[in-house]
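Interim report to the steering committee. The following record documents the input for Probable secreted protein (281 residues).
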Amino acid sequence: MHWMLILFVRKMLFLAIAFASFAFMLRSPLVLAQEQETNSTIRLRVLSYNIHHGRGTDGKIDLDRLANVIRSVDPDLVAVQEVDQNTRRNGMVNQVETLAVQTSLHGKFAKQIDYDGGEYGQAVLSKYPIESLEVHWLPGDPIRERRIVGVAEILIHKTRLRFATTHLHHSRADLREKQATELNRLLACGSTPVIIAGDFNAKPASLAMQTLQAKWRIATTESMHTFPARSPNRQLDYVAMYPANSWRIVESEVLDEPVASDHRPLLVEIELETHSGSLPK
């Protein structure tokens, strides 16, 4: 009887192991799917471009040329500065609508000031539909050109992020520092991932950039010269990401384009690690 009991126990143990293995094989595709949903990576190509209202270093206003530059690098998101909307100097052309059509991207304009019979400001272009765009004023001299940040809400592969374009003060370091502090207050908070790009008019070692680096990951790890376009000798254009530890820099480059604008465009490829299948708030 003792040996029969041993055989019975061994048989039950074998069946239990076999059943557990079979159950694991049935569940493992679901588990893998859940892991992919809750821990995935989004890779984005982001371009920052000050287009000088379409005027190149040859003195010609040519939106076709600018659109070709943008199209050539197949960006997911583009932050554009110095944009004209229906101004006399540009023949009353809606530059955002024109660039959006020519690049097959969605486009939104962020008005900064009234200018020359129309408007002047910045824009966002995106492969993905732009749900909304808000304009926030930054500290500045009310007598001169006011500075803004245009913030777009965009849904990318079930993840909602904010993509911002800005153009900081060109001559006063004290105003750039105040503007950087305000950008931190407005955007570097909460759990929603944020990308900000634009013409910061600041050198990498400046106090304004140090203020931003306290909250953001700058997508260029060394100085990458973007201005002046014909013979660049300093970096004024940047892409930065928040939260800093959620992003990885894949690569970054300054495009070899000396004519289409007085700035060269900055292209970065970055990755966002998402940890939830639900949308960030």
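The first strand starts at residue 40 and ends at 50. The committee is asked to note this result when reviewing the revised timeline.
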